[in-house]
Amino acid sequence: KIAIKGIERELICPACKELFTHPLILPCQHNICHKCVKEILFAFEDSFADGGSESSNQSSPRIRIAASSMDRIDRINRSGRKRNSLTPRSTLFPCPSCQRDIDLGERGINGLFRNFTLETIVERYRQAARAAVAIMCDFCKPPPQESTKSCMDCSASYCNECFKVHHPWGTVKAQHEYVGPTTNFRPKILMCPEHEMERVNMYCEICRRPVCHLCKLGGGHANHRVTTMSTAYKTLKEKLSKDIEYLISKESQVKAHITQLDLLLKETECNSERAKQEASQSFEKLYCVLEEKKSAALRAIETSKNIRLEKLQTQVEEYQGLLENNGLVGYAQEVLKETDPSCFVQTAKQLHVRIQKATESLKSFRPAAETTFEDFVVDTAKQEDILGDLSFHSNGLEIPEINEEQSRMYNKALISWECSGKTDSADIYVLEYHKLNKEEESVTWQKTEVCGKSKVLSDLDDDSSYAFRVRAYKGSICSPWSREVIMRTPPAPVFSFLFDDKCGYNNEHLQLNPRRTSVESRAGFPLLLGSERLQVGCFTTLDYIIGDTGIAKGKHFWAFNVEAYSYLVKVGVVPSSKIQKLFHNTPDVISPRYEQDSGHDSGSEDTFFDSSQPCTLVTLGMKKFFIPATPAAPKDPASRILPLPSSLGVCLDCDRGRVGFYDAGRMKCLYECEVDCSGLMYPAFALMGGAAVHLEEAVTAKDREYHDDI
């Protein structure tokens, strides 16, 4: 009995938290009550029917199921519903023990085995718990006698007399199997749940469950490795016996571990109390500081109040003296009654001065003290932010750092971060950001929780700088904030387009990718054929390509990347009225006499160049950015050559008639000029020799998933 009572933990259903009743074995080898399986499947049916209402959560397998809902199952069973009506084809069942979705197959509940061994152990436990409660005979006339044996074939209990009557000697019933009194009657032969008329006689080593010969011949176990039931019985019993013997032989080690765990429990209790005490002391110190500050502030307000009240009260008394027959006026009236001139003059001179002062104060009335206490307003905004960040800091939790190379600012902001360690011990990250504004005195951080290591933000303003920081959380413990990173958004909304593969596209010299987001110029065989007949100079022309979408108004921005090996690339904008001239009357741009960035100081050459060009372009190539030679540009050619940024941007403002060229990584303007925006404006590109241009792809949620995978 003591051994039976010690295993109660193994006999509790994980769903209803009570002793098993008709337990079934799930494919994951965990056990659950038969009624609990039905109830959980009913709850899932209701959740699908209600569209995932809150009622479905109340019947979760992780929460104890109410016994009142069992009546509904009985009513459905009595109404004649088919056995497999609860289990649709390939039913998924959430196992309460391992928290995984288990596939019950086509037969659902009907394909599960009943765990008779566990059922017998539960019954023995119940009998040990009942102790003195006897099992009565099922066939005695009232009053029934206490039973002495139970027949497993008849599924009934008998006293000695009734057993002799119902199992007479020499009959078939005399051969029935009988045991001690019990209420747990299980079938003597285990039948296959898929083929109900077949007895299980084999064991599938793949699925780890008993099967019949039909399951092996043409069922779901046809290609599985099986063994005979006797062999499986012998093998599993030997393994289980050896494992039990090993555990029993290690009893002293188990007891030592238990003793160690008991010490750890006590140590945890002591350490938690110590941590609570230290935390309380820390907060008490803050309380003391706040109480001192509070007392000092209240004393200052009270002192100022008393001084102001005293001044105002004095002023009230002075003005009351100006009333008739009262104070100064009453005294002056009495002085006027004096008839002796010498005495009157002696007193009236000083009195006249006081009367004049009172008259002047009456003409320009001002209160002696202010009634407002604006100077005593306590600003606690910064302290509130600091207290809001108050948390447990752990040296073991790594500080995440924002990766500026993987982060991008385009149509949306992609903020990516990483930890220096190999393992990610954080449960969640908190990303905070705010717009940099010199006019705002206090900073308000916007906060978002992220499960991965990147976040896509879409609520940022154009042409603005933002500060970002991130910290890691593991439970209630958090890491310090990362270093703040400042990034700038594009100067205008992002304009989306693709390369046009129809208008003027030269497929002999240019090659587009299938998505039309990249174009490449190859100095290959066609270029050699074109240059073969030339003997003096070089008059090779540029190959132009434009965007497939035009801009009529507003301010727009787009970005692209130029490969480092590119020899010559020109980028800019072209009006729709000059597209035909661009493709059919292309001037020589390689001859030094017509190179805008050739370094020649002849103003006539620049004027000729500007007037002859159908579009506004800047020159890139050989890892350099060339600022055009304009009157405002430096005359020294070397000062007009900048390193080529990894990403370039173009900002077209049709309303102002200006186009700017940006370092898209830092959103810094490199060059800006006027442009005629009288018609539709198209992005324009020109390539020569070995060169390639890739349009910047828009930031989407997939970018976040990609960075999280990395």
UniProtKB/TrEMBL annotation:
Residues 477-704 form the B30.2/SPRY domain. GO terms for cellular component: acrosomal vesicle; microtubule. Keywords: Coiled coil, Cytoplasm, Cytoskeleton, Ligase, Metal-binding, Microtubule, Repeat, Transferase, Ubl conjugation pathway, Zinc, Zinc-finger. CDD domains: Bbox1_TRIM36_C-I, Bbox2_TRIM36_C-I, FN3, RING-HC_TRIM36_C-I. It is found in: Cytoplasm, Cytoskeleton. One of its GO terms (biological process) is spindle organization. SMART domains: BBC, BBOX, RING. GO terms for molecular function: ligase activity; ubiquitin-protein transferase activity; zinc ion binding. Its main location: cytoplasm. Residues 187-229 form the B box-type domain. Residues 399-492 form the Fibronectin type-III domain. Residues 258-285 form a coiled coil. It comes from the Eukaryota. PROSITE patterns: B302_SPRY (PS50188), COS (PS51262), FN3 (PS50853), ZF_BBOX (PS50119), ZF_RING_1 (PS00518). This is TRI36 ligase. The lineage of its organism: Eukaryota, Metazoa, Chordata, Craniata, Vertebrata.
